[in-house]
Each structure stands twice: as C-alpha cells, then as structure tokens.
Design a protein that fits this description.
Layout (H helix, E strand, L loop, with lengths): L11 H14 L7 H6 L22 H9 L6 H14 L7 H5 L3 H7 L5 H13 L16 H9 L6 H11 L11 H9 L6 H8 L6 H16 L1
Helix pairs in contact: 3-9, 8-9
This protein binds a DNA duplex (13 and 15 nucleotides) through helix 4, helix 7 and helix 9.
DNA sequence: CGTCCAGGTCTAC
DNA sequence: GGTAGACCTGGACGC
C-alpha cells in the first residue's frame, strides 16, 4: 500500500496531479507480472517476485534526463553536487525547463560547476520550452516503441548508450542493460567471473527477453534489497 | 605538483 | 560501423 500525506485538504485538481506524479514516480503502470512469471524458478532472481523492479523515477521525464546526464563521466560526489545546485536554483524543487532555459551559462559553469554538461542541459531545456522536444511523450503510455524511444534519447546531447539505458529503465522499458563503470565490476564480482565483455554480459541476460535490463539490474542490486 | 579516472559522450577519422 | 582523443570537474594517488 502507498499512502500519501498532505498538510491540507487538496482540491480535486491538485489531488489528480499528486496521483499522476505518484503513479509516475513509483511506476505503478508497469506490468511486471510477465517478468515475475519468467523468474519463477530462477535461483538468481526469484527473490524479486516479492515486488522488486520498480526503480524510483522523477515526476517528469525531463528531470530524469537531466539527472542522468549529471551521472555521466564523473564521481558520484560530483553528481550529487550538481543536482543539489539545480534543486537550490529551483528553490527546493527540481527546476523546470523554462527556468533552466533562461538561466545563464555562467551559473551552470561557476555555481553548479557542471563543466561541458551545462550547455547540453540548457540546450535540452530550451528545446522543451520552444516545443521542438517532447520528453514526456516518451512515457510508455503514449505508445512509442522501445526502439523509437531509444533513438530519441540517443539524439539528445549528453545522452549515449549508458544514459539511454538508464533513462529507459526509469520509463518502464526494461530491455537495455545499464553498462557503466559501476555495473561492470559489480557483475564480475557477483558472477565470480574474471572478465566479461559487454557482449558476454548481454548474452548472459538475453534469456530474459524484453526484461533483460531489469534482470541485470536486479542481479546487481540484490544486496540492497536484503538490507531492507 | 602531475596523472589518473569516476555510474560516458562527442567528434573526427 | 568501429575506434582514438578530447572533454569539465575534483578527489585519489604517486612522486
């Protein structure tokens, strides 16, 4: 059960918005039943049938895209620093595209210290504002195919194979594996393999079909769930 | 102090 | 289509 508390009575319209945001953040629209059936007798993953597999998303696709760009090619400490700065800019909430589009380059460089990512983020925000880019249309309920969604994500500046796979997991497309400098060594450790190319890893998870990426992620994060 | 690299991507061959 | 080199930043590490 999911309970949402508010400090006041919500108007009908606000309540609808809150429901939509919660549905999006917890990926309540995802149907993982086929995946759970798939892992019924899977020694590595059957534990996940208890309800695992819904990665926490942001209220908007835009926010997930920008956050993910802030994870690329830097230490995790840098990611949290950049995102903390963005939330400060937004006055405690993640800044919307309009605010980011009209924020000066100098802020991205000197305050958020986002380096080369700053212009990428601004360009994406500007395209959302001027209507050239509709990121929210990438949500699975809008009917675009997985390949089409991936293609559109890869077209964004700063979004490559890793970022696209990561964002797609958050959207509810579970095919692509998130391969980066954390998942690769973690896979080696857990599988007790000495080395494994990306192709080898993909082959290992190909049997999960369109849930291959989700299976890979759950395989890697099993210990996170045991703690809880 | 210089080099390397962290939850990669882009450009130019 | 596949692969070097460059790229902001800052923390870790060797010298």
């Amino acid at each position: 059960m999911l309970q949402i508390a508010a400090d006041r009575r919500l108007r009908a319209r606000d309540e609808r918005d809150v429901r939509a945001i919660a549905t999006r953040m917890f990926r309540l629209g995802d149907n993982l039943a086929p995946f759970y059936t798939m892992i019924e007798n899977d020694p590595d993953l059957q534990w996940a049938r208890a309800g695992a597999g819904r990665m926490l998303a942001s209220p908007t696709v835009f926010e997930d895209v920008i956050r993910t760009i802030c994870t690329t090619n830097c230490a995790w400490s840098a990611t949290t620093r950049m995102i903390t700065a963005l939330v400060q800019l937004g006055g405690g909430a993640f800044p919307n595209p309009s605010l980011l589009a009209r924020t000066k380059d100098a802020w991205f460089a000197d305050v958020a210290r986002m380096g080369y990512r700053g212009p990428y983020v601004r360009a994406i925000a500007a395209d959302v504002v001027n209507g050239k880019l509709d990121l929210e249309a990438l949500l699975p309920e809008h009917g675009l195919g997985e390949d089409e969604v991936e293609e559109r994500l890869l077209a964004l500046p700063g979004v490559g194979p890793y970022a696209a796979a990561h964002i797609m997991q958050l959207l509810g497309f579970h095919h692509r594996l998130i391969l980066d400098s954390w998942t690769r060594p973690t896979f080696l450790k857990l599988s007790k393999m000495k080395r494994a190319s990306d192709t080898t890893i993909r082959r290992r998870f190909a049997r999960y079909g369109r849930f291959a990426g989700l299976a890979f992620w759950l395989y890697l994060t099993r210990r996170w769930h045991e703690e809880a």
